[in-house]
Each structure stands twice: as structure tokens, then as C-alpha cells.
Amino acid sequence: MIVRAGIDEAGLGPVLGPLTVGCVAFRVPAAGTDLWKALSEAISPTHDRERIVVCDSKRLFSQDKGVAPLERSLFPFLGVEKGTSLAALLEVLSVPGREDLARYPWYQSPPLTEVRLPLAADPEEIAELSALLAKTMRDAKVAFLGARARASEGHAYDAGSREWEGRFGYLSWLVSGLLAETASANPSADLRVLAGKQGMRVQYEAALRRAFPGAFLWVRDERPDRSEYEVAREGAPVRIAFLRDGEDASFEIALASLVAKYLREALMSRFRAWWVEKAPDVAETAGYGLDGKRFLAEVTPRLAALGLARESVERLR
Predict the structure, then answer these.
(1) In terms of CATH architecture, what is 2-270?
(2) Is the pTM of this model over 0.90?
């Protein structure tokens, strides 16, 4: 059995909100299967009114467009139907530490069990696209094996960044966990994993040794645009490549980027809604750059009255 997987992140750079990492996996008929081509009856890498768009999340999402394009593209894969709760989606994605997220007030009122999906997309269109995708995958002898994710913010993000010597080290740790879970879920498969490069990093051996402790690991290639590794295990090896601009080169990475981006934006929607209620005079923010810092400067004087520590809101590392 040949399994192709993709991993990508969203929210590494902001000063507010969660860092999220998505992972997807497919059983494919051949190692070189290009899923954009194999599933072209249902999938398009560019804007298409009739098919599901799978591309870099940065091209599909903007604050002006909202999350509807992400839901339209992602929910047919995840099987999300009208009325599914955001809490249920976190379970579908096997997000650990869900009880830690519940400690933040913006996820308590209303609780995530009462936040219904889709947030913006048309459920009937999602159902139609789901049927088209299922038929196309059957015809192509492709099976979607599921998605996993990580979400970390506030105290957990700062603790992880301290332990792993910065945000890139923490991201590597999150990625290594997803790699280990994907390999464990497919113990005898010929597993090919593609992941987006983390900044300008070229070497990923340390993260892979955390994912596969004690396994023999080959460094096949390490270049600015592509770093390749192979991990020996009983049955079939695991081949892993980290790609620069991987969302444009790999269907699997592109879909993983949609998982990560949607999870971040769905959680950020609760953050923004809570602050609109508590501080209606403060303009909303997506959490990035100068606008994120502007938001922090405006809400910081109110934190004590709301019973919040600054580190609950701001990333300190």
C-alpha cells in the first residue's frame, strides 16, 4: 500500500491567536500519483465554480473573502455536514489539548460545542461537492485516510517556544508529532510525506529523530529548496521531503495548508467575537504585524478588569 501525506502550518508569524499545523493522508495507486491530475474531475488548483479548489491557503483565503472558500474546499474531504460543531471538528482532526483551549474565555461563550458549521459556506453546495469528490476518488482508486491537526496558543505556545528554543523549534516539534502519528497509523505502508519548509531552514534531521527515535535515518539531500530523508522501518521505509513553496508544488501540502488555515481562522473568529462584545470600541484584528500590536496596545489596559493575564492574549516569544 502506498500512502502520500502532506503537512503545513498557519499562524507562525502573528502576535495573536493560535499556531496551527495540518496533516492529510491519501492511499494512492502509485508512488508518483499526482492528485491534482488524478482527481481533476472534482479538483482544480485555481478558481473554479464547479469543482473543489485545492491550492495554497494564502491564495484561497483573505479577510475580505472570509472562511467560505476554505469551507467549500475542505469540508468535502472532512465529511463536515450542516450542524457539525466546531468542537466536533477538533475531534475529527484529533487535535490534542482541547481542554487547554477551553480555558480561554473566547472559547467558552458560547462553548465550541454550540458553534455550528459551516460558518459561511453553503451546506448544499458542500454536499454536492462531497458527492462529486467521493465518485472521483473511487474512479481514481484513491482513498482519503483522514486529517490531523495541532493548535497552540497563549500559555501553551509560550511554554513550547521556551522548551524548544523559539517558534521554529516548537513548530518542528509539532510537525514531528504529526509525522510519528501518520507513520504509526500506516505501519506497513510505503509512506511518502511532503511538508512545507519552515522558513529558511535546510536541516530537519533533529525533528525526524524525535519522530522516529532509534530508527536508522538517511539524509538524502539538503538544499535551500528541498531537503529529503528516508527512515528505515520494518516493512517499507518512510520517505520525507521538506519543500520550499510546497503549497504550489504538492497537492498534499496545499490541502494540509487549508486544514491549518481553516482551523486558525475558525478559532480566531471566536477570539474576535468575544472582543467585539467586551471591547466594542476596539477595531477587530487578524492578529498579524502592526495591526496585531495596535490591538494589543488598545486592549492591554482592560486585561486586569477582564481577569486576563497578558500572556493569555499575546505571544511572548
Answers:
(1) 2-Layer Sandwich (3.30)
(2) yes
